[in-house]
């Protein structure tokens, strides 16, 4: 069902608005620059985009907050979808329904920088897909999808769940013409989390690779016991940690610290399905994912690309 088929309130939304609303619904908070790069990349200036945004805002479907950037305190507009806009998107069924609703307060809070950094990473993959003839669209990454890693209750913050910053799906065409369906767990680190805490979360990814749910009635009846990830992914996703928020020297130290902690973490050093590496937002944006920009968490520290990041072995 398209947005215009989801009810009378949506029938007057332009085609452009139909593309824009699901993006704001899924990604929560996006700058004018993000939307310009994804929806109107061939326009020199976002004149049409701004006009459409103003119309959607006037209709009560989206709203905005201002963000001060740089030493000069320049103002950047950040956009988010309203509860009414959420209802229209959910009725269309075009994206996975999510219980989270961003509020004006949340849009202006300290969380905005991390949310925008996740979008930056998704946009970088999408732009490189366009340049390389690959497939990765504006809706091909989803933020904060919960993955159970042990039996437990559903309390918020319970360590029974692993929540990546985003899960990104990418279809890559090799020089030989083969198509590779790739899935990435993305962790975006702006230097605000202690390295030890980030290393603990990386260990949780390794735990997810081997987590097998307790036998339920349906599984027991079929005699099937297998890892939980196999019900969601064709292969275990690669983990890509993207660093930003500091200069090259500081990010290089953070990479070395992560490698040192990974080397003594049993779940990682014993090997397994988890392929994990570290890069920076600057390298990903400037060079793309299929050049040597990734430092593996274990093994030799030589740079590689997201495809060749080796299985973690000593």
List the keywords.
314 residues, alpha+beta, 3-stranded antiparallel sheet, 11 helices, 38% helix, globular
> Which structural class do you get from the secondary structure elements?
alpha+beta
- How many strand elements? 11
How much β-strand is present in the residues?
A: 15-25%
Proportion of helical residues: 25-40%
Could you walk me through the main structural features you see in this protein, from its secondary elements to its overall organization?
- This protein has 314 residues and is of the alpha+beta class.
- 38% of the residues lie in helices and 18% in strands.
- It is built from eleven helices and eleven strands.
- Strands 4-7-8-9-10-11 form a six-stranded mixed β-sheet, with helices on both faces. Strands 1-3-2 form a three-stranded antiparallel β-sheet, with helices on both faces. Strands 5-6 form a two-stranded antiparallel ribbon.
- The protein is globular and about 55 Å long.
